[in-house]
Design brief:
Blueprint lengths: L11 H15 L2 E3 L5 H18 L4 E4 L8 H6 L2 H14 L10 E7 L18 E8 L11 E4 L9 H11 L2 H12 L2 H4 E2 L6 E4 L5 E4 L8 E8 L7 H19 L2
Antiparallel strand pairs: 1-7, 2-3, 3-9, 4-7, 4-9, 5-6, 5-8
Helix pairs in contact: 1-4
The structure holds 2-oxoglutaric acid and fe (ii) ion.
The site of fe (ii) ion has 5 residues, from loops.
Length: 255
């Protein structure tokens, strides 16, 4: 590991209020060149090693930052990243609780089925989401894993049941098809191009989002950081989330 930080950002106190305002206004913020190219290279090498050992497929690694010394450990635990996520999150949703640890997931689309995991539109469980692109396919437009967003489509809900009902309405096959059609009818408004080296932020809880498919045998890798619980550690939501972890682990380990 190098001693210099891979994160090139001013202090969280300096930028959090502006970033939060921009997120309210535009629904999506790009922090240009905020990650050193050599960090991206190390993250890529990690993913390549993992694919060489486990084969090309769609999988997620839950909390890759737990691996000490990994590029994910370095980025997710960087005080500027933690401070920024907590800073903007507290401005947007004062009732939220913030764990000491930022929840993180490494998501990889590889192998012959480039459509795996695409257009599965959802709201995240957390106040704010940071997306760190590591590999993005450079194939034909609209078939290269571009992110689709419907920014700030709902407020932070006070009620867990309203939240779950709303998620049930949009997170099913029928609704996914309809949302995909809606996005494809107006791609200039909904499509976000992601470039490794930049950091992207959106209000994950409020923003319906998913990614376009990739061509077969593409490689697409993103690191997702999720922070702030608008429902303050509600027991029902904890149960839902631990169920999701089981599914993700199954995806990761299946042959
Ligand atoms: O990989 C992406 O572009 C988005 C993934 C996502 O939304 C998530 O894991 O919550
Ligand atoms: Fe998400």
């Amino acid at each position: 590991m190098t001693s210099e930080s891979a994160i090139r950002l001013p202090s969280p106190a300096e930028i959090a209020p502006d970033v939060a305002r921009q997120l309210d206004r535009d629904g999506f913020v790009c922090l240009q060149d905020a990650v050193a190219p050599e960090w991206v290279e190390r993250a890529r090498a990690y993913v390549r090693r993992h694919l060489a050992a486990n084969g090309d497929k769609f999988f997620s690694i839950i909390r890759p930052a737990d691996e000490a010394g990994s590029p994910f450990d370095e980025l997710v635990h960087d005080p500027k990243i933690v401070g920024l996520l907590e800073g903007v999150g507290r401005i947007a949703c004062p009732q939220a609780t913030f764990d000491d640890e930022v929840y993180n997931v490494l998501r990889v689309i590889a192998g012959p089925k480039g459509t795996d995991g695409s257009c599965e539109f959802h709201y995240d469980a957390t106040v704010v989401t940071m997306l760190v692109p590591i590999f993005m396919p450079e194939g034909e437009p609209h078939n290269s894993g571009e992110l689709l967003t419907f920014p700030n489509k709902r407020p932070y809900r006070g009620s867990v049941l309203t939240n779950l009902a709303e998620k049930a309405l949009v997170q099913n096959k029928w609704a996914w098809d309809r949302t995909e059609q809606e996005a494809r009818a107006n791609l200039s408004q909904h499509m976000q191009l992601l470039h490794p080296g930049n950091l992207y932020l959106f209000w994950g809880y409020r923003t319906l989002h998913g990614n376009l498919p990739c061509a077969p045998n593409s490689l697409r890798t993103t690191l997702l950081l999720h922070h702030g619980d608008p429902h303050g550690g509600n027991a029902l939501l904890k149960a839902v989330r631990s169920g999701r972890k089981v599914v993700e682990n199954w995806r990761r380990t299946r042959a």
